Amino acid sequence: PGRIEVIFELRGDHLRCTVRDNGVGREKAAQLREAKKPGHQSAALQVTRERLEALGGRYEIRDVPDGGTEVV
Question: What is the pLDDT of residue 72?
Answer without folding.
Answer: 94
